[in-house]
Amino acid sequence: MKPRKQTSSTPHIRVAPSGVHGLGAFATCDLPAEAFLGLYEGRRYTQQEIAARTWNDQLTYLFTLSNQETIDGAKGGNGTRHLNHACDPNCEAVEEYDDAGELLLKFQTLVAVDAGDELFIDYSLTADDGSTAEKYPCHCGSPNCRGTMLAPVDAD
Ligand SMILES: [Zn+2]
Hints:
Mean pLDDT: 87
Distance between the termini: 50 Å
Shape: globular
Organism: Variovorax paradoxus
Strand content: 25-35%
CATH class: Mainly Beta
InterPro entries: Post-SET_dom, SET2_Histone-Lys_MeTrsfase, SET_dom, SET_dom_sf
Number of strands: 10
Keywords: Chromosome, Methyltransferase, S-adenosyl-L-methionine, Transferase
Number of domains: 1
Main location: cytoplasm
CATH superfamily: SET domain
Radius of gyration: 16 Å
Protein name: SET domain protein
CATH architecture: Beta Complex
Low-confidence stretches: none
Order of helices and strands: EEEEHEEEEEE
Structural class: mainly beta
Bound molecules: zinc ion
CATH topology: Beta-clip-like
């Protein structure tokens, strides 16, 4: 297998076959907690543009921000799009505004990780189309696995 071309924006991530699902993102070196991993990059869509499209939902790399903009990591994205879900993650996604007022999504470690560790975030997906939890099964294997990548349902 040929080594993937690295983007300079994610120097601490290497993309390789995951132990859980498809490709995954792995730490290239030992990292402390709260180490910056990279920005979620890709084509941006407004909420209206997203609603007007039909998506192949199993194979897209869509990440919707709190301002309802969506980033499609499949178009111009970097290695961060291969971060897999785990219910007990070692990384997290954090939103941050840049100087130009654009909302960015950055990934950072939650805890210290070792070189070669697979990196995970908790997707906490929300299924706008009313999909059931079974449609997004989780196989992360952690003791507190919810069994789904959907966000925990709030009791109301
Ligand atoms: Zn899980």
